[in-house]
Specification:
By secondary structure, the chain is mainly alpha-helical. It has helices at about 1-25, 30-55, 55-60.
Length: about 60
Amino acid sequence: MRYLVTLIWAIVLSNTAVFIISAVDGVEFNAMLATGFGVAITIFVALLDVLNKDMGISDVAQEK
């Protein structure tokens, strides 16, 4: 469920960022590029979560 929410937010925020950047630069907005960035961000966050568990960092943070 948290990855689904991460995917939704990543797509929304990356579309917003690409829209603003394309408007400032005066180029055409490319929704597929922006959605691709959102998917890439979600994959990156998921990989960071897996690495976090493998390194035992999440166990240390929960002890406090």
